[in-house]
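ok here's Protein p34, seq below lol
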Amino acid sequence: MSPTVRIAIGSIFIGILVLGLKGLAWWLTGSVALLSDALESTVNVATAIAALVAIRVAAKPADRGHPYGHHKAEFFSAVLEGVMIIIAALLIMREAWHGLVAPQVIEAPVLGLLINGGAGAINAVWASVLISRGRALKSPALTADGHHLMTDVWSSVGVIAGVILAVVTGWTILDPILAGLVGLNILWQGWKVTANSLSGLMDEAVEDGTLQRIRDIITDRGTGAIQAHDLRTRHAGAVTFIDFHLVVDGQTTVDDAHEICDRIEQSLKAILPEAQITIHVEPEHMAKHSGILVL
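and the structure came out like this:
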């Protein structure tokens, strides 16, 4: 079982635990704000399951129907997660409206808030794990799940502070107002998760820093070639696709050209182990005025 799959399975169990704790906190208090927090946790469980399915699909090797692999499955999971976050936000805002129309007194606030705070602490630790490991493993599904959980953590902090203020002041209307603000924040976070995932589905290039490292490696390791041009990159999950044209002297043998390509590929894979690299070798009359000049 891969590390990515193990973490995804862990997210499901953490999500169920946190959902149970937040549901108990709402049941004890009757707080609309705590209900909004619990509703978001139902999405956490659903998206954790979706992430696990997507990660397992993405790990499948290339086949006849998918010669480039199944790596983009994780982006679909992240898009689904963003959509579900938005749906949860709308449900929370609906509950907030009902609370505004008919505010209710909060019962057993201390115990309920302690339970909710404990659930938030669990989420904070796990969100940090998901973000750090998701980036290290280049998993969009885990990273998106981690950022989602982190918004849940901040929502929980705001909810707890607001419920305490409502109890201390006796202004019960603060409870549904706070729930509405939580809903708006979650709505914004859901949009960001969806937008970031769609960029991956649209074959977005690697970030500028990574692109510069690729350029430097081609320049440093391309000794024997004349020029490299038309460099293109895109990423899909843990895999980075790199392709470019490499211009060599017309008298260069096939073996020598192949040796140059192997040297470049090995160096690129040293920084991007999952990279899939395609190099098109061309004779010198195909050189362009702009491109990467290979020394």
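fwiw Residues 140-169 form the longest helix (30 residues). kinda neat tbh
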